[in-house]
Amino acid sequence: MLDAKQKFFDPRPESVGLAREFAVTTLSSWGFHGATEDIRLCVSELASNALAHGSYTEHGFVVKLDANEDFVRVEVHDSRPRHRREPEIAYAGETDTTGRGLQIVALLSDCWGVEDRRPSGKVVWTLFKTAQLAGQVRAC
């Protein structure tokens, strides 16, 4: 088990890029170099969602990464509780410029979900198999 790392990000657009950098730096420090771009992109999407939809004004978000021999878990903690029982993926139309974030997360990760942390918000999480990150072929 590797030491989990987390970092708070201020509620500003620049924080999305800083969250990506944090994820890549953390993964590199753990020796994962294979599919880190998938994780980087998912962190970007989840951080963007936290800013746009998941956090109350003036509240930032936390990115947490944890890993063991089987999975890397990415969590984005925000301040707004979820509104639905089950997470729903919106399917954007061809001309829509937003609405594809959770589709991307679902396609790139091995699984994902949402956990309520009432009264302090929710956690959107995603898992990646470590074999993929070590450059091995992912089994179906």
Molecular structure report:
- With 140 residues, this protein is of the alpha+beta class.
- Helix content is 34%, strand content 24%.
- It is built from four helices and five strands; from the N terminus they run E-H-H-E-E-H-E-E-H.
- The protein has helices at 14-29, 36-54, 101-108, 130-133; strands at 5-9, 61-67, 71-78, 111-116, 122-129.
- A five-stranded antiparallel β-sheet has the order 1-2-3-5-4.
- Helix 1 packs antiparallel against helix 2 and helix 2 runs antiparallel to helix 3.
- The chain is globular.
CA-atom Rg in angstroms: 15 Å
Mean pLDDT: 82
Percent of residues in β-strands: 15-25%
CATH architecture label name: 2-Layer Sandwich
Question: What is the fold's blueprint, element by element?
Answer:
Layout: E1 5-9, H1 14-29, H2 36-54, E2 61-67, E3 71-78, H3 101-108, E4 111-116, E5 122-129, H4 130-133
Antiparallel strand pairs: 1-2, 2-3, 3-5, 4-5
Helix pairs in contact: 1-2, 2-3
